[in-house]
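BUG-268 | component: ligand-complex export | severity: low

The export step for S-adenosylmethionine jobs runs without errors, but we want the raw record kept on the ticket for reference. Input record follows.
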Amino acid sequence: MEKSGSELSLEQKYQLYEGSVQCHESDLDFLNQEYEREFGRIPLVLREDFCGTGMLACGWADQSGEHHAYGIDLDYEPISYGKQHHLTKLSEEARERVHFVEADVLNDCSFKSDIVVAFNFSYFIFKQRAKLLEYFSQVRKGLSPQGAFFIDIFGGTDSYAPVEEETEYDDYSYFWDCESYNPLTSECLYHIHFKYEDGTKYKNVFTYDWRMWSVREVVEVMNEAGFSKVHTYWEGVDEEDGSGDGNFYRSSDEENCESWVTYIVGIN
Ligand SMILES: C[S@@+](CC[C@H](N)C(=O)[O-])C[C@H]1O[C@@H](n2cnc3c(N)ncnc32)[C@H](O)[C@@H]1O
């Protein structure tokens, strides 16, 4: 049976989403490792743009009494879920080091961060190059002198094929559905659906109206925004099954494949 995604409760909606697309522990490892490699010290202040439920921001502040996190999102719905489900799991002191801000990431911000992170391709909402440049320039203004901007990006020959890709989890399936891709504008429309074991499929739980950016375009816009260096990464391959092994290394020359996700890091 098919139902509209709006029929899921908020709890179900964000639990399913987080269980399918987020792994904040490995994100934290990557941020810490790559920042320390660049600057030879531990980063302490993180700003998570498009933070949604702020799971990463909460995990960040939980690392030590010196770690502070800001989570910025326009929408109070995921923020309120994050406050109820992630913030409350932290100690009282750690909670005070997390600041959720309901705002547009394009706004000026009054604090500086060692790291600004925008994961799950959220900057794809900026369809015009000038808008992406405005966003990257705002990010740079909010970085401390030893600051790094981390984003992820996806691509590959399958990434804009009009297909619905299913991933099975213990008691539900996650669907990544590319409804359309316009080769003349690079605009694409994606949906996330979920199906429970009883066969009920909740359609269009999340919808993303994006522009597909290429790594090269993003690197060029970061350079234009004034980042002194931009590092691109690629994922190692598991020798047994040929899939990604979760280890990302710096690289600027790789062979394309059907589907890949990787990172780009701009250094202030
Ligand atoms: C794809 S979700 C990403 C959530 C989370 N970062 C993650 O990794 O799963 C995009 C989020 O960006 C927020 N958003 C969209 N435009 C925004 C803007 N201009 N400023 C701040 N947040 C925005 C949406 O409300 C939504 O929560």
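Assignee comment: Attached the raw record above. The mean pLDDT is 96.
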